[in-house]
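Input chain follows. Return structure tokens only.
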Amino acid sequence: MLERLIELAIDPAIDPAGIRKMTEIATDDPGDSIDDPVVAFHALSDPLRWAIVGQLLTGEMCVCDLVNRLTIAQSKLSFHLKVLKQARLVSSRQEGRW
């Protein structure tokens, strides 16, 4: 579902019908992870969070890899991951000691 939202959102010709379509996609599956489309769209409103989501669409990644690929501070990445996690667009899991 997130991939469908991204495809629609990067269309430069988004009109009100497109916004309605994105909202329908975000709410069409009750078992899906996005509870509130407004929260999801707010989380995706930042270019850095778009870049994070773009990286994660290729597969699961540890924070250290994201820091290196995006060349940002770990604290800044953690803040943006928290926003994406609160919007339920990403999930996390702990592996190993850290």
